[in-house]
C-alpha cells in the first residue's frame, strides 16, 4: 500500500508540473518548480513541495547576493498567493487525469532544499578554489 501511495504522489506532482507549464498563465507561478508530493495513507491529503527560481532583471538571482533572502521570500509569498487562487483549477485539471475514488485536499509548501544545496555547493567550490590557489 505504501508503494502505491508513493506512485500516486509522484503522478500528482508530475501532473501539477504539467498544469503549471501548459495551462496556467499566472506570472506568480511562472518560476515555480514542483519538487515532490507527499500523500497521506488514506489519500485524503496531499502536500505539494515547490521551489522558486529567483529571477531579477532577467537574470537568475545569485544566492550570494546580500538581498537574496529578502527577494526570495517575496517570490515565495507571490507563489503561495498564486497557488491559493489557482488551487481549484489545479485540482480540476489534475484529477481529471489522475482518477482516484477520493480527491485529496492539496496544500502547497515551499521547499528550501534546492536553495540550501546551491549555497553548500558554492561554499565547497569556493573552498576548493582557495585550496587550489594555495597549492
Describe the model.
Helices cover 52% and strands 19% of the residues. It is an alpha+beta fold and 135 residues long. The chain has a single domain, classed as K homology (KH) domain (GMP Synthetase, Chain A, domain 3). The strands form 2 sheets. It has a 3-stranded mixed sheet, with helices on both faces. Strands 3-4 form a two-stranded antiparallel sheet. Helix 1 crosses helix 2 (68-94). The chain is globular, with a radius of gyration of 18 Å. 19% of the residues are buried. It is found in: Cytoplasm.
Characteristic key phrases:
single chain, 135 residues, alpha+beta, GMP Synthetase, Chain A, domain 3, three-stranded mixed sheet, two-stranded antiparallel sheet, 52% helix
Task: Give the uncertain stretches in residue-range form.
Answer: none
Distance between the termini: 55 Å
Tally of contiguous helical segments: 3
Percent range for β-strand residues: 15-25%
Please summarize the sheet with the most strands: 3 strands, mixed
**Domain tally:** 1
Q: Based on the structure given, which CATH architecture is correct?
A: 2-Layer Sandwich
**H and E order:** HEEEEHEH
Shape label:
globular
Q: What is the mean pLDDT?
A: 86
Structural class: alpha+beta
